[in-house]
């Protein structure tokens, strides 16, 4: 008589919070846009940045259009710097000598 030699599963199945997190709609849209932009750049040999910067540096188009292209490139590709937040506060060093910070005790 042959026995059924299958192992019993003891891992407990799916757990809450396990697995890939769902993407937001904006993340999905950005990913789709980037895929389309890369495909068009490959097809035409120029990226969107190249095209916008070509407008910005073209002396033959009106100045207002050159400024619009420059602003578009600047606003969408350069990270905005904000000042006055938590990162700007002087935190000081993370390690102190005992004389500089009397709360610490020597070990």
Structural summary, described in words:
By secondary structure, this protein is an all-alpha fold. It has a domain at 47-76. Helices cover 42% and strands 0% of the residues. The chain has helices at 25-44, 48-57, 63-77. Helix 2 (48-57) packs antiparallel against helix 3 (63-77). The radius of gyration is 29 Å and the shape is flat. The N and C termini lie far apart (70 Å). The model has no long low-confidence stretch (mean pLDDT 81).
Strand content: under 5%
Provide the gyration radius in Å: 29 Å
Low-confidence stretches: none
What is the ordering of alpha helices and beta strands? HHH
Number of helices: 3
Number of DSSP-assigned strands = 0
For the residues shown, what is the average pLDDT?
81
The end-to-end distance, rounded to whole angstroms, is 70 Å
Tell me the helix content.
Answer: 40-55%
Oligomer: single chain
Ordered list of secondary-structure elements with their pairings:
Blueprint: H1 25-44, H2 48-57, H3 63-77
Short description:
It contains 3 helices and no strands.
What keyword list fits this structure?
single chain; 107 residues; mainly alpha
């Amino acid at each position: 008589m042959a026995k059924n030699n299958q192992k019993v599963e003891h891992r407990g199945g799916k757990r809450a919070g396990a697995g890939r997190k769902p993407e937001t709609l904006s993340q999905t849209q950005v990913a789709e846009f980037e895929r389309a932009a890369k495909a068009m750049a490959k097809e035409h040999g120029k990226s969107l940045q190249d095209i916008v910067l070509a407008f910005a540096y073209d002396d033959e188009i009106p100045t207002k259009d050159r400024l619009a292209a420059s602003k578009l490139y600047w606003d969408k590709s350069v990270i905005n710097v904000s000042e006055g937040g938590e990162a700007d506060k002087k935190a000081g060093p993370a390690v102190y000598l005992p004389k500089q910070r009397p709360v610490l005790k020597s070990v």
